[in-house]
Amino acid sequence: MMSSHPAVVLDLSANGVGIIHALSRKGIDVYAFDTEGPYSKGKSRLATCGICPSPLNEEEELLSFLKKIAMEHDQKPVLYAGADDYVVFISKYRSVLSQYYLFLYPDHSLIMDLLDKKKTYELALKYNIPTAKTFFVENEEQLDEAITQLEFPCILKPVYGHEFRKHVNKKAIHIQNPIQLKEIYPIYRKFGELIIQEIIPGDNQCFYKVATFFDEDLELLALFTLQKNHQFPAQFGTGAHIVSKRIPDLVDAGVPLLKELALKGVSMIEYKKDPRDGQYKLIEINPRFWLTHSLTGHSGVDFAHQYYLYLTGQRPSPKINQTDGVQWIYLVRYFLTYLEKRKKGEMTLKDFFHGLRGKKVFALFALDDPMPFIRSTTSHLWNAWKRKRRSD
Description:
Strand order of the largest sheet: 13-12-9-10-11-14-15
Oligomer: single chain
Domain ATP-grasp: 121-312
Low-confidence stretches: none
Keywords: ATP-binding, Ligase, Nucleotide-binding
GO molecular function: ATP binding; ligase activity; metal ion binding
CATH topology of the largest domain: D-amino Acid Aminotransferase, Chain A, domain 1
Mean pLDDT: 93
CATH architecture of the largest domain: 2-Layer Sandwich
């Protein structure tokens, strides 16, 4: 295998560390960067890691930084991004960065539309994709009107999640009643546009993802589907325990949609199955590697490596047949989810240990690279302890 092209990964969360592990174990030289906070937790011994300027408020500095990194190598590096901020930055400066790096993204306007929950909702309507009942509110009069049509509890979500999380580290705010909504809305509105959405019933196992890798000509080079078992936080969070599972109905629905949208490169669409009508309802579409992508390599698909092979001209064969039943576990988040669900009688210790049986891959735990796991676990447990103290 030709591996003279290095890989550069922007992101040192579990997403980025998963890319590092997938590539470095194939003999590829990996360089990984992030801003100071994530770098301190995620730096890996399997890559040359460092701190980089922020894609949010140091764009020119980051552009110069990346040019310098690329010019240190004889071959163009393959550029990976594990977070929305880096995707937007790379896409925005693609004409310059493409002179130094290999990467594949859809049109910039499509990327920005998919990060905008209003535009994503409009796409769902355009393509007749079922979705949660959604309200867009710009003033108090519209808020009052929405309240008359809402069922409570409901959720308050940012239109631009990556921008909102600069100020508030939440994917969504759970709203119990109209009084709370009227009190909470102006507080969070200061940090960006918001939408109000019904809560689709069903537990964590009602969430599914379809992931694709389309090449420049929109030929499918990788396909993967999965089901969540647990997420953290349990109500509105990210994956903690996932299983590889082929869902033909979602393949039939999701793959043509992503191709129709011309989502070149790696992308993922998330659905939640509504037990009221059995419909899979759109949650979001991401034009990038997603948190649990490291499950794919252990299930016979390996998105990160397919991406590398294609961009370095090695013409990989399509990988569309996956191994089902492989589990992906973010161990500390799975444990904290267990503690949360145990209080509500939704999970027992026996259930927790049962989830550790069978073929599995851990998000961060690795004997050849132990420190990202240790630092992440310490940080999660410390933050959980601080939250408990505040609530006592």
